[in-house]
Amino acid sequence: MKQALITLAFVVGALGLTIAAVSVEPEARRPSIFSDQGEELFPAFRDVLAVKALEIVDYNEAGAVASPLKVEFRKGKWILPSHYDYPAEARDRLAKTAGALLDLKKDIVASDRVEDHARYGVIDPLDTKVASLTGRGKHVTLRDGSGAVLVDVILGEPVKERPGYRYVRLPDEKRVFAVKTDADPSARFEDWADGSILRVSPAQIRSVNILNYSVNESTGQLVNPQRIALRRSGDQWAFEGGGTPNAPTVQALLNTLANLRISGVRPKPPELARQLREKAALEMSLEVVLSLRQRGYFLTPDGRLLANEGETQVESGNGVAYTLRFGEIAGAEGEAKPEIKDPAKAAEEKRFLFVTASYDAARAARYGTTGGNGEAVANAARARFADWYYVISGAEFTRLRPRREMLDSNK
Asked: How many helices (H) and strands (E) does the chain have?
């Protein structure tokens, strides 16, 4: 009996200590997985205007390759360091991206297990230790002008049962949160590149010459040349020499010219860029010739530049003429052009584009715009085009060089 009383006293005492501990420290009952729920995700990030650099790494599951894009404010302008420092249109897009990551809270703890990362799409796209090709998210990093990290996060899948929420994970942590945000920044070059190429409206275009040809690389001769000349009179377009073209096809051509955007760039050799910028005759140095040939361009002994997929010449009312030369299929930098096994899909391949601009006062007078700003426009365009081989989509390549039968209104 005495032993039973002693045991009971111990039990009562232990129970009392437990109750006291709980009353003094109630948070001890909360599971550790919820220890930071509701806290700020990026407490150091307070000002969107402080962001001076952005890096986005997306993952292409089909190609099993990470696609990085970097945007940075340098020397008073936005550039794309990931793409040869090409000029960027970043101010509004970056502000939207940064704003969507400001004042985020760790709203809901979704998981504390590494095994769930693929399920929520928060595997780091740069993680080489993980074999999975699926379940990788976007790694987004924001930095200030000193290079200090303001935001570093992996954006995963949207939360199906909670519209407006997305799964996220901090790169060095295994915990996954559901966070209220619409952040989904693009890592596509064309979404950040500086504007349309020609910067001309459909109404400004007065004539289009389409020169369809290919080049015999061994002889330098044109193969199967075909010229289509279109002229505007008022609001009507006609073939040079008579005949009315198909209006929707012409309008599609004009719209493509006016809104032509690029999906990539490659830098030209400095020597070639200088010659183009200064309107100097192109010199056939080894570096220039090799650079041109690798992308489907050929310089004849008399200085004429040919393209192995022809060219399109565009004249605007202010006396400026643009020449668009279409080169090889654009593979990855340093790689040979991809082999086209199905000719029917050739137009889907991206193409190199070489653009030049010139001004002619007589041309401006012919269109009735003497005393305009055509020369200044041509000079600015020449400077803009000089440094770059552009890359355009296969769809735009097809629309910019229609065959005669496509333009014939009777077919």
From this structure: 10, 19
| Residue 166: strand pairing partners | 158, 179
Residues with Cβ < 8 Å from 247, sequence gap 6 or more? 237, 409
Digit-coded pLDDT (tens) for 320-379: 999 999 999 997 654 546 555 565 566 578 999 999 999 999 999 999 887 789 999 999
In angstroms, how far is the first alpha carbon of the chain from the final one? 111
In this structure, are 182 and 262 located in the same domain?
no
Which runs of consecutive H residues, i.e. helices, occur in 259-297? 270-277, 286-294
**Are both 156 and 218 inside the same structural domain?**
no
239 shares a domain with 183? no
Tell me whether residue 94 is in a domain.
yes
* Closest C-alpha to 318, from 359, 353, 281: 359
- Indicate if 185 and 223 belong to the same structural domain: no
CA-to-CA distance for 192 and 290, rounded, in angstroms? 30
pTM above 0.90, yes or no: no
Mode of pairing for the β-strands spanning 53-60 and 138-143: antiparallel
- Do 182 and 301 belong to one domain? no
Task: State the DSSP H helix or E strand holding residue 139, giving kind and residue range, or none if neither.
Answer: strand 138-143
CB atoms within 10 A of CB 107: 18
The CA R_g of the chain, rounded to the nearest whole Å, is 30
Determine the Cα–Cα distance for residues 390 and 380; give it in Å rounded to an integer: 17
Q: Is 122 left (phi over 0), alpha (psi -120 to 50) or beta?
A: alpha
* Strand-pair category, 311-316 with 305-307: unpaired
Length of the chain as a residue count: 411
What is the CA angle 275-281-282, rounded to 5?
Answer: 65
Which tokens belong to 166?
A: 């997305």
Task: Assess whether 171 and 207 both reside in one domain.
Answer: no
Rounded Cα gap, residues 99 and 47, in angstroms: 9
